[in-house]
């Protein structure tokens, strides 16, 4: 019954390992596809294809990929904590870790490029911002010479509305920049946690291997000592037998001599 129970536990661990591995592989594939789409969008920034709709789509896919990366990091850390004995599982875990880190690097580079271009847009927009003059006061009694003033006033109002839209867009882009910078810091934190996890995992593996080697040495030493003890016991037994035979021979000789006399 004990063997069957242990086999069941091992089977559950293998199933859990495969489930986590498949989830990570699927997420890494999604992140890679999203980063590819993001890269194309970022390349369209500051070109004739640039638009507010494009920037909104880029922001949405970036936010989704950011969350997916965090979830994948959590799952990968859970996988790294699992104790595996099969070399195939170790290789699979290392491969998934390498693929995830590589994809995360590409995602981080794309984020930085998007942030850089957005900052450049903000600087240019601020430099081109129009200083709005206070609107001229209107007079109900118009004369023929006031038509030119009315035309200038309408232009001024149009410029005012345009500038307000530009200022609103600037505020949105600045908010997007702050969000991007926070996301970049989060990705850097993920790298830091993964690095610590991989380093600690390596230390744990080394410690386990060292303990196993030490146990094997102890087993071998114990077996050798038992073997030596058995040999020593056999030698003592043989000596006792030889002494008994010699004693019997001596007693027999003495008895024969006494009987002859």
Description:
This protein has 261 residues and is mainly alpha-helical. Helix content is 88%, strand content 0%. It is built from four helices and no strands. Helix 1 runs parallel beside helix 3 and helix 2 packs parallel to helix 4. The radius of gyration is 41 Å and the shape is rod-shaped. The protein starts with a helix and ends with a helix. The N terminus is likely disordered. GO terms for molecular function: SNAP receptor activity; SNARE binding. One of its GO terms (cellular component) is SNARE complex. It is found in: Membrane. This is Syntaxin-12. It comes from Papilio xuthus.
Attribute tags:
0% strand, transmembrane helix, neurotransmitter transport, membrane, mainly alpha, single chain, Syntaxin-12
Shape: rod-shaped
As residue ranges, the low-confidence spans are 1-5, 131-138, 203-216
Count of DSSP helices? Answer: 4
What is the percent of helical residues? over 70%
* Helix/strand order, N-terminal first: HHHH
Beta strand %? under 5%
The whole-angstrom Rg is 41 Å
The main β sheet shows up as:
none
Count every beta strand, where a strand is a DSSP E run of 2 or more residues: 0
Note the gap between the termini. 76 Å
The average pLDDT is 75
- What structural category do the secondary elements indicate? mainly alpha
Membrane topology: Single-pass type IV membrane protein
Subcellular location: Membrane
Domain T-SNARE coiled-coil homology: 167-229
GO biological process, one term: vesicle fusion
